[in-house]
Every structure is written in structure tokens, then in C-alpha cells.
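Protocol step 4 of 5: obtain the predicted structure for the target chain.
Materials: sequence only (see below). No template structures provided, no constraints applied. The aim of this step is simply to have a reference model before the mutagenesis design in step 5. Sequence pasted as it appears in the construct record:
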Amino acid sequence: MAVLALVMFVVAEVGDGIRGFRDGWNEADEQAALKMHAPFTLNLEAENALILDTLKNQADGKLLPYVMDCVEVDGLKYPAWYGWGWLLIIPFALLFIYGFYCVVRVILSVSRGEVFTQENVRRMRFFAYPALVGVFILELHQRMLYDYMASQVMLEGYQVANYAQHSSLFCYAMLALFTEIFAAGVKLKEEQDLTI
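Step 4 output (C-alpha cells):
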């Protein structure tokens, strides 16, 4: 089960990374390659329930109503702290790589029958907490950037929607919770061994 869970985690994370890389690669063109930053996407909300814009139907010439839910904006000024924000992620990325190594070590020690040990608790903590903090900092960085960009844009009939969280902090928080439950189980086992 542990190997299957690890494989599923790797497939999900690597799959997301590959899709993101492919999307970025496909969206790049010669003009974007010469620019410092790619266009920034903002989510929109219509200010009222009425249809705000129209498209023309090519077949019968009628005007068709539509509402936009996002817009891609080019030429926005990025904040000075934008580049430095990514540097905060580097230590957590390195810790996450080491944490992934620790999970592999946990699986190997479980396969040898060494399940409830303090060493496994330490390894699991090295995996769970850097991942949780790294994802939190990344989300905070993205939210601050989104709010900064949204303050530069005004579109008649629309307002910029609030930032939508991209990664699932809940999954990482649950991983940290299960790690602490495992640690409590190890402590109970040690107390029981001492009692016996």
C-alpha cells in the first residue's frame, strides 16, 4: 500500500509538472520569448447579472450575449520583489527532495518490518512539513502577485475576482496530521514496550 501511495503521489505531481511545462511551451511564441514576463491571467466577475457584451453570429447576423470569466493581460508591471519571492522556495524544494528520499527510506524500513520507530517519524516529518510550508509560501507569493496585478487593471462592467487557490493545502495539512498521528502511535508503542 505504501509503494502504491508513493507511486500515485509521484504520478500526480510529475503529471502536473509535465502538463504545466507543455502548456507553457505551447503558449510561448517568438514575441513572448523576447519579453521579460509572459501575459498575466486575471479572473473576472460581471458587476451585474445582465449580459455585458455581444458577439455576432456569422450564420444569421444576430447578436449573441456573452460574459468573460478571465482575461489575459500583457504589459503589466511586475513588482520588484517578484524575483526574490521565488528564492524563498529553493530551500523548501531542497528539503522536499530530501523528504522524498526519506519517504523511500520509510517504505524500505517498513518492508523489513521496522514500522513504528522514531527514525520513521523523523523521516516522515522531513517529508510532510517542508512540503506543507513550501506550498503555503508558494501560494502566498502567488496571491500577493495576483493582488498586485489586479490593482493595475480596470475593465468596464467587470471587477477582478479574488485569487483562486491553485494547490491543495488541505492534502498537505492532512499529510502532516497523519504524520503526527503516526508519531503518537510510535510513542504509545514505546510506552507499551517499557510497561511490558
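Step 4 remarks: Residues 118-150 form the longest helix (33 residues). The first strand starts at residue 40 and ends at 46.
Proceed to step 5.
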